[in-house]
């Protein structure tokens, strides 16, 4: 006898549903418990983690049986987490900037650390979602070159990912702006900057009822139209990271008018049909049926508790968790991103999206076909999803991909895309390395500039020599900081004690409930930036 609805599940789905329900309940319980936790307990856990990180750069080493070297003296121990790395990249300037970036609340605060400003525009999509688009503004006059660039982020991200690098010249928007481009950074519906609909409640299932299809059909074309109208230009250049490039391919393939509006698509770490997850169990679990994923994560926003965890976690621990999760899910080892960089970048990695969007990706992975979202399993119903007609794209496409990126199967992608697609492999790079690695300017952004038909020698002389004359890079350095002093870990922790408590990068973490506000003034540009209040511990005990 058939049971309505549930009777349609495969045999294999049953044990999975049981596991999912257990996990879901577990997450529910944990979230109840954490919300009920008093602040003092949270501080206690933070304290414990801090002690663990003092003993070892990586808590995993603590459980390993091998003996540690003799205990280090206190001065050095305060900065153990960063110690294992090449010390040359640590100077006081970088460290202070990292603290500021880590604690920055929004993209506006982030770019202001580098002497830029943000102009926010609100795009209303045809289906009435409101999206923020961020346009870079400089505080200094520069010569516009009349070209427009549109940057778009990846899955579970927001526009902040473009401006997290500690070295100014490794942030793509700043290079492009200084070279004269009009630089815009888009945001998908549902992320940190676009959580608004004219009619739907943010808490409703209707609001979160979107997948890649809506990005492709509404968000991308509507944003492009908005930018072109605002700039009174005929064409722009699109640069996407990861899902941001997949969205663009999908979008151009179904909106043929975009062929006239975009002059080229530059795809950094593009992903259209990833193989699947590294963890076989999770892979099977999530590919099995969308209903399982919906049971596990609801039909609304994906894991909103991540933001909460990020807030209460000790930042190095948060980074370790992200690294471990990425390793389990995708087999990424994140060797090319320095720990210092991770502290600033990972803090701006996660933003919200819908569960449906992730379900859509799992459908693409399991069918090995870049197709639209569909509700019923085609194997059972004979109802087939529509594939995105990627071959329709007429504009030039350039793929910049890492050779060790487990999400990119370059041959599959080349077969899906039109024949005029060009590729540029980056040796030994994983997915995120193409955005945040220690040499991302040299290995990736130079190539982007080449696609933009910039003369690299000219660029370098413009960016770097100009900096020597007019101290552009130095804008970001506060007067009291000696930028050239490259110091070892011991010195770093010694100097760290002179950093005021308000600069502890834990200030956000335990900052709940305090109304104390402080402002720091950058002596060079004279702008005022509110800094988050500080309660609780610093890493420097
Ligand atoms: C989501 O949107 C589709 C149309 O795009 C509609 O058929 C479906 O009923 C909606 N689902 C929910 C839960 O609102
Ligand atoms: C284009 O911009 C003008 C203002 O500059 C505005 O009045 C008009 O509605 C815009 N058109 C579209 C299609 O967004
Ligand atoms: C998932 O659940 C819906 C009802 O909520 C049902 O119509 C659909 O057939 C189910 N899909 C699968 C693959 O079990
Ligand atoms: C420059 C650098 O550190 N490159 C490393 C990037 O990561 C790969 C492993 O994924 C290493 O083999 C490279 O040496």
From TrEMBL:
Residues 518-541 are annotated as: Disordered. PANTHER family: LYSOSOMAL ACID LIPASE-RELATED. Keywords: Lipid degradation, Lipid metabolism, Membrane, Transmembrane, Transmembrane helix. The chain crosses the membrane at residues 12-37. SUPFAM superfamilies: alpha/beta-Hydrolases (SSF53474). Pfam families: Abhydrolase_1. Residues 148-424 form the AB hydrolase-1 domain. This is AB hydrolase-1 domain-containing protein.
